[in-house]
Amino acid sequence: MGQYYIIDFDSTFTQVEALDELARISLKDHPDRESIYQQIEDLTNLAMEGKLSFADSLEGRIKLLKANREHLNQLVKILRKKVSPSFSRNSKFFKNHQDEVLIVSGGFKGFITPVVTEYHIKKENIYANTFEFDKDDNIIGYDRTNPLSQEGGKVKLLKELNLQGEIFGIGDGYSDFQLKESGMIKKFFAFTENIERKSVVEKADHVTPSFDEFLYINRLPRAISYPKNRIKCLVVGKVDEEAIAQMKKEGYNIRHHEEIKEDYLQEAGVLLCDEEHQPTPEQLQNAGRLKVIGCFGRVSGRKLNEAACENGIIIFDDPKHNPRSGDFIPKRVIAFMNEGKTHTSCNFPDLQPPRINNAHRLIHIHKNIPGILAKINEVFARHNINIVGEFLVTNTQIGYVITDVNTGYDEQVLSELKGIEHTIKFRLLY
User: Fold this and answer.
1) Minimum mean pLDDT range among 277-286, 313-322, 347-356, 362-371
2) What pLDDT is stored for residue 1 in this prediction?
3) pLDDT digits (tens, 9 = 90+) for 293-304
4) Quick check: helix, strand or coil at residue 16?
5) Which of 51, 122, 183, 412 can pair with 46 through a Cys bridge, CB separation 3.0 to 4.6 Å?
6) Please, are residues 199 and 49 in contact by the beta-carbon 8 Å criterion?
7) Is 198 helix (H, G, I), strand (E, B) or coil?
């Protein structure tokens, strides 16, 4: 008995509703285009929220489109650039689970197939509607015998497929929830990376702000070790709005407070602050989750730098008050969180390792005491783990090691690395 993953396309695998995008292409020269766009979007939303039958919504939208094959070709080019980031970065999961992943959509194969097959999804596992064309390649309708063109179509299709095993559904709309309502799937995950529909979220077994989150809670292989939506980014003081927008785009859970308190820091993985609102060295002693500080201004003194270093917390600051710090600081923070890069930090040794594909990256921060690297490598040797790349830099306080290793090892390895004497912080980056 295997597991199957039923994944929606519009506003789930991709960031947009494809028929809405198709309308913007096909009607761009129409004098009433704005009015028609709005009608199509309204029909989409009413169906996704369960306020209009899917069949009525689909029929209404197709009548308004006035599209042809050339418009479809243009749409595919757009959709390829609009794949949801968390799906895009987990293409390896799709490659390794080709038999278990099914795309089930009320959309159309004409634009879905060319997009998802680039992610190793099998054509025979793509279930969607099909357009009907006239002799001039204009879309004039669709196959109404296809269950996915009908109300409750996803439920009808799953009954026909009769999959034997545990089935998980991932989507943003009411038709996705209907699979759970029918009792045919084990869990329904409301996907909210692109849009959050209250009527759907309220009925979900779990709300997943990203595909990373879905993979994480189901203990499945993923591109990043820990979903960013679970990492709190504490914002205190005058922090550039552009910086906050970048952190939101990365998926971090933003928390605004007027001052820094210990209980806020204890929950935060990232701190963005200005020169007037910096943590004290004492506050950092209990900030066990805090990994990085981005300060929009100059760090208040040597003691704060040293306290952060002692606790494995990297600091990026902007001592010259660069007018571009709204872009500079978050980029440095994101590069550290994503790849372990420490360049331009004011308290960590400088390291800019290249990204190595098909490997896991481990970060080990420890007191600068001789012999730690040997102990790290002894753990790898004892478990027959191949090291693809290894980088060590030090300053007077700490040693900072990044090790890229082949995938496929026992999780006991991670516990042993954390347990090495004089370890300050350890994490699996990806």
Assistant:
1) 313-322
2) 67
3) 999 999 988 999
4) coil
5) 51
6) yes
7) helix
CA distance 180 to 184: 6
**Superfamily grouping for domain 2-217:** HAD superfamily/HAD-like (3.40.50.1000)
pLDDT-wise least confident of 76-85, 219-228, 251-260: 219-228
Q: Kind of pairing, strands 268-274 and 232-236?
A: parallel
CATH of 360-428, one of 3.40.50.920, 1.25.40.10, 3.30.70.260, 3.40.50.720: 3.30.70.260
| Parts of the chain belonging to CATH 3.40.50.720 | 228-339
CA torsion angle 190 194 198 203 (round to 10)? -10
Structure tokens at 381: 């040797």
- Residue range(s) of every CATH 3.30.70.260 domain in the chain: 360-428
Instruction: Give SS3 for 339.
Output: helix
C-beta separation of 373 from 403 below 8 A: no
Q: What pTM, to 2 d.p., does this model score?
A: 0.80
313, two tokens: 């917390």
* Strand pairing category for 360-367 and 423-428: antiparallel
Residue with tokens 């960590």: 348
Helix, strand and coil percent figures for the chain, each rounded to 5 = 40, 25, 35
Q: What are the tokens at 396?
A: 């007077």
First to last CA, the chain: 29
**228-339 fold:** Rossmann fold (3.40.50)
